[in-house]
Specification:
The protein is mainly α. It has eleven helices and no strands. It is 83% helix and 0% strand.
Length: 260
């Protein structure tokens, strides 16, 4: 698996889109630090961009890489290699290359600006951690969609629809549900509903870490009471880890059952 991971990683790192992805975050970090003297404000602005953009890029790259490397994958399947080894190696190659572009692209400007001497280092670290989690999650979800659909158009369509639902539509449905059932105790429902969406969970963690939970509105106090504690943070990171592990397990299961 390490050889396949290494090949996939270097293959993507040679791609111009990886350099575009890296350059975008590098430029974004430089511009934000130029416009903001406060690192905390720059982190808040980055959060709004990363929460939406990182899942989209992970989804598109995951689906695109699977379909573009399909012939090479079929060649590997003819070799005495486990199917799970092939697909997990490809998945990790894509996810790790995107994660590295994200970390280096945003990390370099902030480090040169004096991040290690600032109190915002922990907020920025949590931002990068959630960004890596979202990359791993949505790349895995994209591989699952691609494995389940031979047709490229359907695969891309379902992948974009999945991102659209989790990034935008889910929030609308969740908010409407809270408004409709506002007369009932919704503390636990709000917590569960947040954990069922990795984007919402990541956004909540960052907002609470930045101590601006008032922006969460109706359930802000509940989230601060739960997620603001160390046990809440640990449980939230565990939920994100489950969001990574579950799609990976399905990739392994689907690869073994799929007829190539």
């Amino acid at each position: 698996m390490l050889k396949i991971l290494k090949y996939s990683f270097y293959d993507l790192m040679r791609s111009r889109w990886s350099y575009v992805y890296f350059a975008f975050y590098l430029l974004l970090g430089v511009v934000l630090l130029f416009l903001n003297n406060d690192l905390s404000k720059a982190v808040i602005t980055l959060m709004n961009i990363i929460i939406i953009l990182v899942p989209l890029i992970g989804t598109i790259f995951g689906v695109m890489y699977y379909y573009n490397s399909k012939e090479f994958t079929e060649l590997l399947l003819a070799q005495p290699l486990k199917r799970s080894t092939i697909f997990l190696g490809q998945y990790l190659g894509v996810a790790l290359s995107l994660s590295m572009s994200l970390i280096l692209g945003l990390g370099l400007p902030f480090v040169f600006y004096g991040l290690f001497k600032s109190a915002a280092i922990w907020d920025f670290s949590l931002l990068l951690i959630t960004g890596v989690f979202l990359t791993l999650i949505f790349t895995a979800l994209a591989f699952n969609i691609a494995l389940s659909n031979e047709n490229k158009i359907k695969g891309f369509g379902y992948a974009i629809l999945m991102w659209l639902f989790l990034a935008i539509i889910y929030d609308g449905i969740f908010l409407m549900s809270l408004i409709i059932f506002e007369d009932y105790p919704l503390d636990k429902v709000s917590l569960i509903g947040t954990m069922l969406n990795p984007i919402d969970l990541s956004r909540t963690l960052i907002l609470l870490k930045l101590d601006i939970s008032a922006l969460l509105g109706y359930t802000g106090a509940v989230f601060k009471q739960f997620f603001g504690t160390n046990s809440g943070l640990l449980l939230s990171l565990t939920a994100l880890s489950i969001w990574v592990i579950a799609p990976i397990l399905r990739i392994t299961f689907k690869a073994k059952k799929k007829d190539f």
